[in-house]
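User: Show me a protein chain along with its predicted structure.
Assistant: Here is one chain, sequence first, then C-alpha coordinates.
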Amino acid sequence: MTEEETKTKILPADVNGDGKVDDEEKAMYMEFKRRELEDQDAMRDSQRKMAWFALGGMLLYPFAVVLAVLFGLEQASKILGDMAATYFVAVAGIVAAFFGAQAFQKGK
Protein backbone atom coordinates (compact mmCIF):
# COMPACT_ATOMS: atom_id res chain seq x y z
CA MET A 1 0.00 0.00 0.00
CA THR A 2 1.44 3.38 -0.97
CA GLU A 3 1.77 6.29 1.40
CA GLU A 4 -1.02 8.18 -0.40
CA GLU A 5 -3.43 5.23 -0.07
CA THR A 6 -2.56 4.98 3.62
CA LYS A 7 -3.26 8.70 4.14
CA THR A 8 -6.58 8.40 2.31
CA LYS A 9 -7.68 5.51 4.51
CA ILE A 10 -6.54 7.21 7.71
CA LEU A 11 -7.80 10.70 6.86
CA PRO A 12 -10.68 10.38 4.37
CA ALA A 13 -11.72 13.97 5.10
CA ASP A 14 -8.32 15.32 3.99
CA VAL A 15 -9.35 16.76 0.61
CA ASN A 16 -6.14 18.62 -0.27
CA GLY A 17 -3.83 15.78 0.85
CA ASP A 18 -1.70 17.80 3.26
CA GLY A 19 -2.08 15.22 6.04
CA LYS A 20 -4.19 17.52 8.21
CA VAL A 21 -7.94 17.94 8.40
CA ASP A 22 -8.89 21.59 8.87
CA ASP A 23 -12.32 22.85 9.91
CA GLU A 24 -13.54 23.37 6.33
CA GLU A 25 -12.57 19.84 5.30
CA LYS A 26 -14.14 18.43 8.44
CA ALA A 27 -17.38 20.33 7.77
CA MET A 28 -17.46 19.08 4.16
CA TYR A 29 -16.82 15.50 5.28
CA MET A 30 -19.50 15.66 7.97
CA GLU A 31 -22.01 17.12 5.47
CA PHE A 32 -21.18 14.33 3.01
CA LYS A 33 -21.67 11.67 5.70
CA ARG A 34 -24.93 13.27 6.87
CA ARG A 35 -26.32 13.27 3.32
CA GLU A 36 -25.14 9.71 2.79
CA LEU A 37 -27.03 8.61 5.92
CA GLU A 38 -30.15 10.53 4.82
CA ASP A 39 -30.02 8.88 1.39
CA GLN A 40 -29.67 5.42 2.92
CA ASP A 41 -32.58 6.13 5.25
CA ALA A 42 -34.76 7.36 2.38
CA MET A 43 -33.88 4.27 0.34
CA ARG A 44 -34.83 1.96 3.22
CA ASP A 45 -38.12 3.83 3.70
CA SER A 46 -38.92 3.54 -0.02
CA GLN A 47 -38.13 -0.17 -0.06
CA ARG A 48 -40.24 -0.74 3.03
CA LYS A 49 -43.22 1.11 1.51
CA MET A 50 -42.85 -0.78 -1.77
CA ALA A 51 -42.83 -4.13 0.04
CA TRP A 52 -45.87 -3.27 2.16
CA PHE A 53 -47.85 -1.99 -0.85
CA ALA A 54 -46.95 -5.14 -2.76
CA LEU A 55 -48.02 -7.29 0.18
CA GLY A 56 -51.27 -5.32 0.48
CA GLY A 57 -51.95 -5.78 -3.22
CA MET A 58 -51.26 -9.47 -2.88
CA LEU A 59 -53.81 -9.75 -0.10
CA LEU A 60 -56.43 -7.63 -1.88
CA TYR A 61 -56.10 -9.30 -5.29
CA PRO A 62 -58.51 -12.18 -4.51
CA PHE A 63 -61.13 -9.65 -3.40
CA ALA A 64 -60.86 -7.95 -6.81
CA VAL A 65 -61.69 -11.27 -8.48
CA VAL A 66 -64.65 -11.85 -6.14
CA LEU A 67 -65.93 -8.31 -6.72
CA ALA A 68 -65.68 -8.76 -10.48
CA VAL A 69 -67.80 -11.91 -10.21
CA LEU A 70 -70.33 -10.22 -7.90
CA PHE A 71 -70.75 -7.29 -10.31
CA GLY A 72 -71.24 -9.66 -13.21
CA LEU A 73 -68.00 -8.79 -14.95
CA GLU A 74 -67.26 -12.30 -16.17
CA GLN A 75 -64.56 -11.27 -18.65
CA ALA A 76 -62.80 -9.19 -15.98
CA SER A 77 -62.91 -12.03 -13.47
CA LYS A 78 -61.51 -14.43 -16.09
CA ILE A 79 -58.66 -12.04 -16.93
CA LEU A 80 -57.89 -11.43 -13.25
CA GLY A 81 -57.93 -15.16 -12.60
CA ASP A 82 -55.59 -15.84 -15.52
CA MET A 83 -53.15 -13.15 -14.32
CA ALA A 84 -53.11 -14.40 -10.74
CA ALA A 85 -50.29 -16.92 -11.09
CA THR A 86 -47.88 -14.43 -12.65
CA TYR A 87 -48.93 -11.64 -10.31
CA PHE A 88 -48.48 -13.67 -7.14
CA VAL A 89 -45.04 -14.97 -8.18
CA ALA A 90 -43.84 -11.46 -9.08
CA VAL A 91 -45.14 -9.83 -5.93
CA ALA A 92 -43.93 -12.69 -3.74
CA GLY A 93 -40.47 -12.15 -5.24
CA ILE A 94 -40.52 -8.47 -4.30
CA VAL A 95 -41.68 -9.18 -0.76
CA ALA A 96 -39.25 -12.09 -0.30
CA ALA A 97 -36.32 -10.00 -1.56
CA PHE A 98 -37.15 -7.19 0.86
CA PHE A 99 -37.58 -9.36 3.93
CA GLY A 100 -34.60 -11.52 2.94
CA ALA A 101 -32.39 -8.45 2.65
CA GLN A 102 -33.61 -7.23 6.03
CA ALA A 103 -32.80 -10.58 7.65
CA PHE A 104 -29.38 -10.64 5.97
CA GLN A 105 -28.52 -7.14 7.21
CA LYS A 106 -29.55 -8.00 10.75
CA GLY A 107 -27.32 -11.07 10.61
CA LYS A 108 -24.22 -9.00 9.76
